[in-house]
Amino acid sequence: MTEPVYKRAIDLMEAELGDELVALDPGAGECFGFNSVATSVWRQLETPKSFEQLRKALLDEFEVDVGQCSLELQGLLDDLTAKGLVAKAAG
């Protein structure tokens, strides 16, 4: 059984504000604000990635322990999936 991968589910219009991102879904008229961690994950998802690949990228970029990173990354991915911004697919 292969690990699932995460990918962007929609294209957003994006504007950078420092290390954060403001994104607009023009079809739905919804606006999203991404903090620096969410921005990093969104950038990583330009190509589909597994949870492990995303976590490794965050651990390389931010000073955080593995457990905290795993917990917060899963919460972020669940939130982005619930909002229809990210989809999970079989790897």
Main pleated sheet: 3 strands, antiparallel
> What string gives the helices and strands in order?
EEEEHEHHE
Q: Quickly count the helices.
A: 3
Quaternary state of the chains: single chain
User: Over the alpha carbons, how many angstroms does the gyration radius reach?
Assistant: 13 Å
- Contiguous runs where pLDDT drops below 50 for at least 5 residues: none
Q: What is the terminal separation in angstroms?
A: 9 Å
Strand content: 25-35%
Find the structural class using helix and strand composition. Answer: alpha+beta
Query: What's the β-strand tally?
Result: 6
Strand ordering within the main sheet: 5-1-6
Approximate helicity band: 40-55%
Shape: globular
Overall pLDDT score: 94
